[in-house]
């Protein structure tokens, strides 16, 4: 089966600083480039560049020299000063702190950070204070070598609690006993539709077509049976010639404790791309065009039909991040001297692992992600027609946070098999 674009958006109606806008744009660019690097034809893809960026960001603020520059550029933050990056991360952290779970239909975005440090290693006081101030992260001394199973259990429980049980077991085995530091971000999103959705009984299949390379397939065997969701109402809509895709925005209930709003934006590639979604993702999809198109969406009468989604993915991202230019941080040349008060830190990133889950049904959406970075030693008034949008082929799905003209993706996916 092929892939389709779906975007879940969380929007913030607040004035953003230049620093936060630049960080958000950088994470957006990072998200699409990471999608292009990890996407495989005929498979689902899902990640949270936001979660990954925060885990890497806690390492970035301890990097120095060319290690800092290469990490910064790979994360889409090229040209930003260290102070601007710190300000952007802090503002994002402070704003998300408002969106705590509450009774009712309010949408929720929850983020938690933690750093586990080998008790035999002394991280710098300044670095520890930076983590607390910018990321609201706390540090915990552990024995990776002598108490590996308990450390693994504690990390899994932290992520399970932070994602409200959506990711119950991140680590299936203990981290390497030579680990000096484990940096963790966990992210959770939940939203209920503002406009009640309906289930649709239909025998229509998802991706029910035969591509030229599937000549041996029988028509009856094409496609996947799915559960459909349908709604006819007024929604933000745009048919983009630049993205060669149709976009529809479906709002969630707002969070009453703030002026935030959340939406799901479905991005459906035009039919000519249905047999080669990979080429469309790599050639046509880019963050600048997505933001530009979202800025010109118009309210239209839309009859939208799309499948329930239940997907998950996990990645070992070290090779992918290095392919994006983050090579020095993984090498013996890495300079993380900002993590200690004086002298050489003698540290490098050993691994970056990531896991994400997303469920979308007629009630709303739930999504969660966790990222772990392990650090070790070097070595007029006319009738308006109803737009029919039938998401019956592969698409891309993003959950994004919009912060008053600045948009950052929380989750990014390609849905081939809902």
UniProtKB/TrEMBL annotation:
Residues annotated as signal peptide: 1-17
MF-aspect GO terms: serine-type endopeptidase inhibitor activity
Serpin domain: residues covered: 32-418
UniProt entry tagged with the keyword Amino-acid biosynthesis: no
Origin: domain of life: Eukaryota
Iron-sulfur as UniProt keyword: no
GO CC terms of this entry: extracellular space
Keywords: Glycoprotein, Protease inhibitor, Serine protease inhibitor, Signal
Similarity comment: Belongs to the serpin family.
Name recorded for this polypeptide: Serpin B10-like
Gene source species: Tropilaelaps mercedesae
